[in-house]
Amino acid sequence: MLGHNWRVTPDTGISVLPLSPTVGAEIVNVDISVPLAPEVIGSIREALNTHHVVFFRDQSLGAEQQADFARQFGTVTEAHPVLPSIDESPEVLAIDGRVDRASWWHTDVTFLETPAMGSILSMLEAPEVGGDTMWASLQDAYEGLAPAVRELCDKLIAIHHDPWFAADVAERGGYEWDGTWHEKLLPALHPVVRTHPETGRNGLFVNRQFTRAILGLSDNESSAILEMLYHHCVKPEYTCRFRWRAGSVAFWDNRATLHYALDDYGTAARFAHRVTLQGDKPFGPVMPRPRG
Ligand code: SIN
Prior knowledge:
By secondary structure, this protein is α+β, with helices and mostly antiparallel strands. The chain has a domain at 6-100 and 116-129 and 242-254 and 266-277: Clavaminate synthase-like (Double-stranded beta-helix). The protein is 21% helix and 26% strand. It is built from 6 helices and 18 strands. It has helices spanning 38-51, 63-71, 138-143, 147-154, 163-172, 219-233, and strands spanning 7-8, 15-18, 25-28, 53-56, 93-96, 118-125, 133-137, 157-160, 175-177, 180-182, 188-191, 193-195, 202-204, 211-214, 239-242, 249-253, 257-261, 271-277. An 8-stranded mixed β-sheet has the order 1-2-3-4-16-6-18-5. A 3-stranded antiparallel β-sheet has the order 15-7-17. Strands 11-8-14 form a 3-stranded antiparallel β-sheet. It is globular. The site of succinic acid (SIN) has 9 residues, from strand 6 and strand 17.
């Protein structure tokens, strides 16, 4: 029997099981390796807008199938603006625990003018235990701030940048993203409060990895506000934690979440493929939505 919080979409047969009240839901009864019916795509999109990250278990996705799944939700980007793709596909990034471990709270590529809309991670080899990933809902975090602090954040713009990636780009003379060639990786300005373009819900949009400062504030003011927000965003009540198995897939909304991959698995193998979807220029109370 289904638990009380299962939501079954009658016309598609798929079910959505929330992992927590704020973020994360497992979607069952769908094989995402094949083209999906429009109503299934609609249900997945709705679950993503509500839960911010959705999970699928026991999938069997080759690199091309993963990119094809992503294409049903938008335009697939290059694998990464700076890091190389896998040999078989320019759209797929290897996430290999032997090379790198993303054990810090971040939102993908916010150092770009148009950060990814979403990311899809397909786990190919998982540790028996450890290597979980956590997500935090930036919209619930925003709504959990005191009204006066929300009002302050509504007025702020942040500078996002990755100086190490910028140096790599300078050395190689440019980078490609969203099908466009850029000569330099320059700092990007994003609102501290971002309005979700599909739901209209506001959320915080800062992360410790790529947000450098708040525009127009002293270093002291900027770092005090950002530190307060970084702590606030990852309050356990705004998070969920997902235990991977080979064949698990996560699809997260990069406009509304932070994530953190736990580095607690020693020398065990952890290997995944990631595909990202093209995003728009973030807008919010302090920065109007660009025209067109
Ligand atoms: C990432 O930051 O995109 C990777 C997340 C993970 O390895 O779980």
